Amino acid sequence: MSFIGGGLEMSDVAIKIKSLGAYYSQTAAAFHRVSGFGRFPEPEPPYTFPEVQTDDASGALSQSLDSIVSDVGGASVVSPLLLEVIDARLSERSFGSIALPEAYIGSLLWAAYGKRTKGGEVCNRVVPSAGATYPLSVYLLALFVEGVSCGFHRYQPDSNSLVFLPQIIIPSRVNDWFRTTHIDYTKAAAIVFIVGNWQGICPKYGARGYRYLLLEAGHMAQNVCLLATALGVSHVPVGGFVDDAVNTAFDLDTEKEGTVYSVVLGQLSQQRAQK
Question: Cα–Cα distance between 135 and 77 in angstroms, integer?
Fold first, then answer.
């Protein structure tokens, strides 16, 4: 029988570690619940902020796309297209009336949490994850997507596919699922919901695991937003949803997991559909 200093058996240490993991997961769940209470005032457009006075900078950073490309060594070093997409990304709250192509949704979900292949072999995901724990999952509410059944789906990264979830009922008013009210959800083509599983990361990283989980959700959402921009899909990230309504619909065990973020994808406008 092997021992560790202090006379503890290995099995005792394993139990202690497992108990700590459960404690940290419960702590994350408690904070998540508390942060979901109450309502908050919505800002009014045009969302202006007071000017902040800054010191004159002797070495001002480049602000134009051309100067940025030039400064880092030209187009052979950095893709001007990538910079154009970053520069063009903008949250939009009004959408068109033309359904999204199925291929768009497939690409957007892959950009969110898909797996990459190298040499024909599947390797890691398209977003960074602390300790490669990948504690997130993706749900899709398809409303106006060509070739995709209207309703809820769960994204499968291994096969880059969707599993239809007919047991989840579409709310009669999608708006009722959101506290953020100044968005035209009636013209949304689809909504991506990001669900975090704290038991998938907190046992390894303790209380800090919840932070890492949220950071990963941010990486995922940004990938979706950038590709949506490149495809001409209006979109807006939304953190103001009704936790209980969404989590209950997804049948989540809120001691272990919960919805942490969402991205609303709009239907195409006539102008963008013709491009």
Answer: 33
Question: Residue 136 is inside which H or E element, if any?
Answer: strand 136-142
pLDDT tens, position by position, 192-251: 999 999 999 999 998 889 999 999 999 999 999 999 999 999 999 999 999 999 999 999
φ/ψ of 220, rounded to 5, equals -60, -50
Query: Based on the number of CB atoms within 10 Å of its own CB, is 154 exposed (0-12), middle (13-18) or buried (19 or more)?
Result: middle
pTM exceeds 0.70 for this model: yes
Give the orientation angle of helix 102-113 with respect to helix 208-231, to 10 degrees. Answer: 150
Write the pLDDT tens digit of every residue in 95-147.
999 999 999 999 999 999 999 887 777 778 999 999 999 999 999 999 999 99
Domains for the chain: give ranges and CATH numbers. Answer: 7-38+82-273 (3.40.109.10)
Residues in contact with 186: Cβ distance below 8 Å, sequence separation at least 6, in sequence order: 174, 175
What sign does the dihedral 155-158-160-165 (CA atoms) show? negative
H or E, element range at 34? helix 10-34
First to last CA, the chain: 70
Instruction: Give the tokens for residue 33.
Output: 């619940």
Which residues touch 28 (CB under 8 Å, ≥6 apart)? 198, 202, 207, 209, 210, 213
CA distance 217 to 233: 20
